[in-house]
Every structure is written in structure tokens, then in C-alpha cells.
Write a structure and sequence with these properties.
single chain; four-stranded antiparallel sheet
């Protein structure tokens, strides 16, 4: 059974009397432990698709099964619980809280989680070590490079031990060498069993995934 299964997913936005069909019947299965890249140019619908997969948005029609459960008819509170339990997010913008240090930023999702971990600070330090930031626990975002900030964001995405990591253009603001070091982290997480879905327009970054699908004008091409 796929960990994610999308069946005829459509997304239509209404602007006044105008309807814009952003996704036009997406069918996509993602197996547990996959490393999938979704490629497409700006405006192709890839970020909308990722938002739906991440339960940040709901399709206009179609069926979305997460862990075998139909989720697009659930209420917001249940969606939030599922999102916190199973999904970690990494974005192009790092979205770190400027007045919190690296350790505090990583711990933040636990405030909204139903999961509990023994010694959460120790867990956050282990995750920062894992992404190559040993000893930078007290550093504020302004004291970190772009690549280091993205590493904090990855550690933050892992704090709830999610099954799935969704990464939306995670290397878009980084130089080539730093981008590849971030992709190294994703590859290692995938080897450890995490399901990774990467959205990118960069063919070199996409090539690091095990499977690539392309989206154009709201439709998937294999």
C-alpha cells in the first residue's frame, strides 16, 4: 500500500467570476521509503501539489489517501494532528524565528505536537549534530549562513520523527556546493527510511532522487 495515493486530484481557485484550474486530475502514488522529485517551472502547480500532500491545502475534487486513510474529508483539527504526526516540512525560505537560537527553533514544533519524547533538548541537539551543526546550538539565525539555516530547518522538520519529509525548493537560495551538501542530508535520511518528496526546478538536484515526475500546466508526466 502506498504511503501517499492521489486519485484524480484537481484544484480550482476562483478569482471573482474567473476560475483557474491549477491541478488537472493528478494521479500519483508514493511508496514508503521513496525519494521522489517533482520537477516543474514556476506556475506549473508543483507547490500547490506539495501543499495538498502536506495537508496545508485541500483539493477541489479527487481523493487523497495518506497511510491508507482518506484525508480530504477530515476536519481541520484532525488534519493538523495528522500533519504534526507524519509530515515534516523544509522550505526555500527557512522560516526560522530570528530571536530564537538554533536549539529553540528546532524544539518549536514540539509545542504543537501530540508526540512526546524523553529529553527533548537532548533530542534536538542530536538532530543538530546529525545535520552538521554540532556546537552551534546557541547561534541565532543572523549568526548562521544560508546553508546552516537550512540545516536548522531540516533538524526542525525531523524533531517529531515524521514518516515523510516534504521539501519545497530547499536549495533554491543556496550556492551549488551548499545545495549539494543539503542534498547529501536528504539522501542519508532516505537511506534511514524516511520518505522524501522534493519539489525543484533544478535538474541536477532532481537527479539526486530515486524517481522523477514532471508537472506541467497542472498535469503529471512520467
Amino acid at each position: 500500500m502506498p504511503i501517499i495515493s492521489l486519485k484524480n486530484i484537481k484544484k480550482i481557485y476562483t478569482l471573482g467570476e474567473r476560475k483557474i484550474e491549477v491541478l488537472k486530475g493528478i494521479n500519483l502514488d508514493v511508496e514508503k521509503g521513496e525519494f521522489l522529485a517533482i520537477m516543474g517551472v514556476s506556475g506549473s502547480g508543483k507547490s500547490t501539489l506539495l501543499n495538498i500532500i502536506g495537508l496545508m491545502d485541500m483539493p477541489t475534487s479527487g481523493e487523497y489517501y495518506l497511510m491508507g486513510k482518506l484525508v480530504n474529508q477530515l476536519e481541520d483539527e484532525k488534519l493538523s494532528q495528522l500533519r504534526n504526526a507524519y509530515i515534516g516540512f523544509v522550505f526555500q525560505q527557512f522560516y526560522l524565528i530570528e530571536y530564537l537560537n538554533a536549539l529553540e527553533n528546532v524544539l518549536l514544533p514540539l509545542l504543537y505536537s501530540n508526540k512526546s519524547f524523553p529529553k527533548p533538548k537532548q533530542r534536538a541537539k542530536i538532530l543538530l549534530d546529525k545535520v552538521g551543526l554540532s556546537g552551534r546550538y546557541s547561534s541565532k539565525p543572523s549568526q548562521l549562513s544560508g546553508g546552516e539555516q537550512q540545516r536548522v530547518a531540516i533538524a526542525r522538520a525531523l524533531i517529531n520523527d515524521p514518516e515523510i519529509i516534504l521539501a519545497d525548493e530547499p536549495t533554491g537560495q543556496l550556492d551549488y556546493q551548499t545545495a549539494n551538501s543539503i542534498m547529501d542530508i536528504f539522501e542519508q535520511l532516505n537511506k534511514e527510511g524516511k520518505t522524501i518528496i522534493l519539489v525543484t526546478h533544478d535538474p541536477e538536484m532532481a537527479a539526486r532522487a530515486k524517481r522523477i515526475v514532471k508537472i506541467k500546466d497542472g498535469e503529471i508526466f512520467y
